[in-house]
Amino acid sequence: MQTLHLTEHDAARAGDILRHGGLVAFPTETVYGLGANAFDADAVRRIFEAKGRPCDNPLIAHICDLDTLPTLWREIPDTARTLAAAFWPGPLTMILPRTAAVPDALTAGLDTVAVRFPSHPVAQAVIRAAGVPIAAPSANLSGHPSPTTYEHVLHDLGGRVDAIVEGGMSSVGLESTVVAVEEHRVTVLRPGGISPEMLAVVLDDAEVIIDPGVTCPVESAPRSPGMKYRHYAPLAPMTAFTGDPDRTAAAIREKIGMRTDCAALLFDEYDAPCSVVHYGGRADSLAQAHRLFDALRKLDDFAPTEIFAQCPDETGVGLAVANRIKRAAGFHVVNVP
Ligand code: TXA
Ligand code: MG
Predict the structure, then answer these.
(1) N or C: which end of the chain has fewer CB within 10 A?
(2) Which residues contact 31 (CB under 8 A, 6 or more apart)?
(3) Residues of the chain with pLDDT > 90: what percent?
(4) Do 124 and 89 contact (CB within 8 A), yes or no?
(5) Domains identified in the chain and CATH numbers
């Protein structure tokens, strides 16, 4: 299949392809997404094929106005309205019970559907041109780090999708915060650019809970099916080091010793005697989020036999950065006292 290269000026063309059942990857503020008409079960199934994604892992429906919500959700509780008013358009995905119009292929048979209203102007233009909600997982091959640039998408999905819209580097750099919304409880299933602290600030009437699967490996039947898969993984085995950055850097240097075959993923302030990829200042979780996935892909370029990574502490957006690094490490974590 020939993959068309589109730009931000080609939203109408992208919309056309989507309306006719095609697959179009496009930029969002979190990561690039691989889009299809969310109401077209065949088109949605094509997403799973192109990504090699397990079909029990449901997709997010992307919208560009709130008027579309009643076609997707049976009811919209006040808690969801509050979160939408505070964080949409933006990097928040909400899960609520779905209408009968939503195809099983999208939700992997679940009775709920995840919805997001992205803030990226090109994402909004593409969805508006399509005139339907757009199903869009991250536009990477299943298991690879999510794409934050056009080049990442082309590398993974070139020849497998109808078109890719180029639109610069994603600003947030990690996938959206995914929450299950109940009347008095909001459960974070996947942390992202909207931290649990930010959610709590706007909710008077609902508690914010972090699902255990965010910080620990899940054994069976997680609430978010995506949590059971090894994700964001560079090719070589990786170990994540948590604790004070001066100490984790020292522990990593000690681990490396005289070996030249390893690579290290470090905060900007540190170095090691091997291939090093930096991903942001030690106290700058927004920069870490923005650069992490590109850094994970760069680690592959060194073809190391083993990778050692500094992992930030889990406050604010650091929770999301640490979650992706621990998953990339298959939860192989060393706590440095
Ligand atoms: O930022 C994002 O969310 C990006 C961009 C493209 O918008 N999309 C994205 O989609 O990250 P994906 O498919 O890679 O991740 C969606 C996550 C998966 O972990 C999936 O299991 C979970 O959301 N999910 C989707 N629908 C769900 C549902 N009804 N119940 C529980 N988890 C759900
Ligand atoms: Mg993904």
Answers:
(1) C
(2) 138, 139, 140, 146, 147, 148, 170, 172, 173, 174, 175, 293
(3) 91
(4) yes
(5) 4-214 (3.90.870.10), 238-335 (3.40.50.11030)
Confidence of residue 220 (pLDDT cuts 50, 70, 90): low
What are the backbone dihedrals phi and psi of residue 311, each rounded to the nearest 5 degrees, phi first?
-115, 130
- Report whether residue 110 contacts ligand 1, using a CB cutoff of 6 Å: yes
- For the Cβ of 46 lying below 6 angstroms from any atom of ligand 1, the answer is no
148 C-beta closer than 6 A to ligand 1: no
Q: Is the peptide bond before 27 cis (omega within 30 degrees of 0)?
A: no
Residue minimizing CA distance to atom 17 of ligand 1: 226
Dihedral sign, Cα of residue 221, residue 225, residue 228, residue 229: positive
Q: Look up tokens 């299809």; give the residue.
A: 36
Q: Cα of 58 to ligand 1 centre, how many Å? A: 7
Say how many CA atoms lie within 13 Å of 248 toward its Cβ. Answer: 23
DSSP-derived letter for residue 317 is T
Q: Is the CB of 272 under 6 A from ligand 1?
A: no
Nearest atom in ligand 1 to 62's CA: 7
Q: Where is average pLDDT lowest: 18-22, 158-162, 221-225? A: 221-225
Neighbours of 337 (CB within 10 A): 6
**Prediction pTM value:** 0.96
- Ligand 1 atom nearest the C-alpha of 53 is 13
Ligand sitting nearest the alpha carbon of 145: 2
